Amino acid sequence: MTSALTGLPFDDIRALISRLPVADEDAVAQVRARDTDLTKPAGSLGRMEEFAEWLAGWQAKAPPRVMRPVVAIFAGNHGVAAKGVSAYPQSVTQAMVENFAAGGAAINQICSTFDLGLKVFDLALHVPTPDITEEDAFDEAGCAATMAFGMEAIAGGTDLLVIGEMGIGNTAVAAAIYHALYGGTAADWIGRGTGVDDAGLERKRSAVERAVARIGGPGGDPLEILRRLGGREIAAMAGAILAARFERVPVIVDGFVATAAAAVLHALDPAAIDHCLVGHVSAEQAHADVLRRLGKRPVLDLGMRLGEGTGAALAAVLVKAAAETHAGMATFAQAGVATKG
Ligand SMILES: O=C(O)c1ccc[n+]([C@@H]2O[C@H](COP(=O)([O-])O)[C@@H](O)[C@H]2O)c1
Ligand SMILES: Cc1cc2nc[nH]c2cc1C
């Protein structure tokens, strides 16, 4: 894809963000009204009630339903892995993509347990993005094209999209994005990822510091931060989140890395991720701080730090249960149960 064919790609993305569909308040009001008639004390389903309202608003449908949930995993490789920022070799990314195809990964078991669809997108794993301590991850056309590729996540139809990723070294990339978006020091945003030792953690801190210093320090345009720091799976996840908004598909974002894609969109327009829940708070230390900045309360807190969409897929199960509970419960009148006196 060249800019001659596509015009100015980032301008196209900014144009999309300037006309985001909003939640359907009628559908939300219908869910709220029905909720008061259901056979339970008012408010007794807690956040499950909030999930049903959220689903209805973004699906523009009352009652909301989750019949075709899809987990989309985006896999990318990163030149910065050569700086020794991960506990595992880069070959693990490709090997795990093969494991997803063979059904052997954690996410496969969660999907088969709860009947969630699974799509895996391999983003040119044999050609890692350049080492971001030295070079930009993308040119503008490449970044926009990768975002457009991510929009394929909803092709074929879904009513709840779970966003996950796989990519050795990508917690360093996500940390660099957060450092560039939110400032502070590199040390504020790094964690042990797949389990780096103290020496690896110091290499990671240094790589994140150098990558962000190379682009002139924190601040500046969020799409430029994404373009210069990468990586492919993060750009693709941002595209997937945006596409879902336009097709009225609510999104559940996974952990520390997937949230970096949401954070870029949020920095462009805080309303851009209103159709997203964050499935869980990762054990990666900076994730809780990121979620506070995004105004997102995670659905789950299980001490997980796997990626692959696993935390978000588990949250999707609760969100589906919220929809089924709301749609299927009897009202006080139907069941002949006395209302509050
Ligand atoms: O998203 C998270 O919360 C998360 C936290 C720690 C590790 N990961 C996964 O582990 C890989 C990145 O870790 P690392 O140490 O190679 O940067 C990548 O495949 C992610 O899916 C993911
Ligand atoms: C084995 C392994 C599986 C993963 N799944 C997501 N990230 C991962 C990282 C490793 C190392």
Automatic annotation (TrEMBL):
Keywords in alphabetical order: Cobalamin biosynthesis, Glycosyltransferase, Transferase
Catalysed reaction equations from the record: 5,6-dimethylbenzimidazole + nicotinate beta-D-ribonucleotide = alpha-ribazole 5'-phosphate + nicotinate + H(+)
Gene Ontology MF terms in the entry: nicotinate-nucleotide-dimethylbenzimidazole phosphoribosyltransferase activity
Pathway: Nucleoside biosynthesis; alpha-ribazole biosynthesis; alpha-ribazole from 5,6-dimethylbenzimidazole: step 1/2
Active site residues of this protein: E308 (proton acceptor)
UniProt signal peptide: none
This enzyme's EC code(s): 2.4.2.21
GO process terms (BP): cobalamin biosynthetic process
Heme as UniProt keyword: no
Main EC class the enzyme belongs to: transferase
Keyword Nucleus: no
InterPro entries: Nict_dMeBzImd_PRibTrfase, Nict_dMeBzImd_PRibTrfase_bact, Nict_dMeBzImd_PRibTrfase_N, Nict_dMeBzImd_PRibTrfase_sf
Role noted for this protein: Catalyzes the synthesis of alpha-ribazole-5'-phosphate from nicotinate mononucleotide (NAMN) and 5,6-dimethylbenzimidazole (DMB).
Family of the protein in this entry: Belongs to the CobT family.
HAMAP family xrefs: CobT (MF_00230)
PANTHER family: NICOTINATE-NUCLEOTIDE--DIMETHYLBENZIMIDAZOLE PHOSPHORIBOSYLTRANSFERASE
Name by which UniProt lists this protein: Nicotinate-nucleotide--dimethylbenzimidazole phosphoribosyltransferase
UniProt lineage: Bacteria, Pseudomonadati, Pseudomonadota, Alphaproteobacteria, Hyphomicrobiales
